[in-house]
Specification:
alpha/beta, Purple Acid Phosphatase, chain A, domain 2, binds zinc ion, six-stranded mixed β-sheet, about 400 residues, single chain, Calcineurin-like phosphoesterase domain-containing protein
């Protein structure tokens, strides 16, 4: 189908940095092994030297479309912007960073997670609004409250925040809520979920098993009741067969009853306004959207969320997630909603990346234009009359 005929209404850069979790070597639920640097450093001096932090992610404007930003795996690739215009990112309406942006290992490095954020966000500070989804690695670095309030960074105009960027005029239970929705273009609504509202580290502030951090007793009990291993120790997925049962690990979480109600009401309102919706969540919402259907990166109460999506008068066109590191493109057979799990650039081949530009059209069609490890696809909405 021809893009010009459809009339693009929205262009979005989507990236899933996904700092790697290695439960098999962790004392706690998830140990981080990533440092993050911006590619615009002129030498390797800013690259963290810890052996465990050898892989980094960085932004770069993507040729031949320098207005579009791409997250990629850095491996000696340091490229300065060719012109100041390269840094404006004017080719997309917003950037969605799907979570696990800054790894917990930065806690052990000079400047900590804030320095990593400062370096990584510098190049996109003057660009389009950036949505930062809350991932487990964000919680290993920062307290939830400071992320929701916004973390100011030296020299940067825009704080790092997991609540809605003010420029988007979002609708949310509160200004600092990590779940919200907004309409970036006529006929479209984007819903951002917080899959760690209930989790063993829902208040964040450190790495369980490494830093001094208080675990949430209710969430620990809930997870532990469904897992035969000690979830506060390593190998918490040991012996659990691939499938839905494997979701009961501490690197996942759940949405609250209030968030479910909010989602239901938001979809209802979107339907009344004839808006198509896109859901963004760090954690996967459909078992078939986890790699090999292993269930390891599935939301604890995914069934409740699916129930809301399936019973909506106009089910979402797509759910876009991160967390699993690998690309999975699946479709809910009940609702017709596409569930796309995006791969991480930290596991892409050096010089490649894993990022996508998503284009939304006025007839409800979504085009994912993949870069690097992200496969391109065209997604039809589930109920719109003109989508077949
Ligand atoms: Zn994650």
């Amino acid at each position: 189908m021809d893009d010009v005929d459809l009339g693009t209404t929205l262009r979005v850069t989507i990236a899933s940095p996904s700092a790697v979790c290695r439960p098999s070597v962790a004392l706690g639920p998830c140990i981080d092994h990533r440092g993050i640097v911006t590619e615009f450093s002129s030498s390797d001096s800013s690259v963290v030297s810890d052996d465990d932090c050898e892989v980094k992610t960085a932004w770069r404007p993507t040729a031949p479309d320098p207005g579009v930003w791409s997250l990629y795996r850095a491996g000696g690739m340091h490229r300065r912007p060719e012109s100041p215009n390269d840094q404006k990112g004017s080719g997309v309406d917003f950037i969605a960073q799907l979570g696990d942006f800054v790894d917990g290992c930065n806690q052990d490095l000079p400047g900590g997670g804030r320095k990593a954020l400062q370096e990584l966000l510098g190049p996109v500070d003057q660009g389009p609004p950036v949505l930062h989804l809350i991932g487990n690695h964000e919680l290993y670095n920062f307290a939830r409250k400071e992320m929701e309030d916004g973390i100011p960074l030296p020299g940067l105009k825009v704080p790092f925040r997991t609540s809605a960027p003010p420029a988007l005029d979002a609708e949310a239970p509160s200004k600092t809520s990590s779940y919200y929705s907004f309409s970036p273009a006529d006929g479209w609504r984007v819903c951002v979920l917080d899959p760690y509202e209930i989790s063993i580290m829902s208040h964040g502030g450190g790495r369980p098993g490494v830093d001094e951090v208080t675990l949430e007793p209710g969430a620990v009990s809930w997870c532990q009741e469904n897992n035969p291993n000690d979830i506060t120790k390593e190998d918490f997925a040991r012996g659990i067969p691939p499938g839905e049962a494997r979701r009961w690990v501490p690197l996942n979480g759940a949405v609250s009853e209030q968030q479910l109600i909010w989602l239901e009401e938001t979809l209802e309102l979107a339907s009344k306004k004839n808006e198509e919706t896109i859901i963004l969540s760090h954690v996967v919402l459909l078992p078939e959207a986890t790699p090999g259907q292993n269930g390891l990166t599935l939301l604890w109460n995914y069934d409740k969320v699916l129930q809301v999506l399936r019973s909506a008068e106009r089910p979402p066109t797509a759910v876009l997630c991160g967390h699993a590191h690998l690309m999975v493109n699946s479709r809910d057979q009940v609702s017709g909603t596409h569930h796309v799990t995006l791969p991480t650039p930290v596991e892409a081949n050096p010089g490649s990346d894993a990022c996508a530009v998503v284009e939304a059209f006025s007839n409800g069609l979504l085009k994912i234009r993949g870069r690097g490890d992200v496969l391109s696809s065209t997604l039809a909405c589930s109920t719109h009359a003109t989508c077949t």
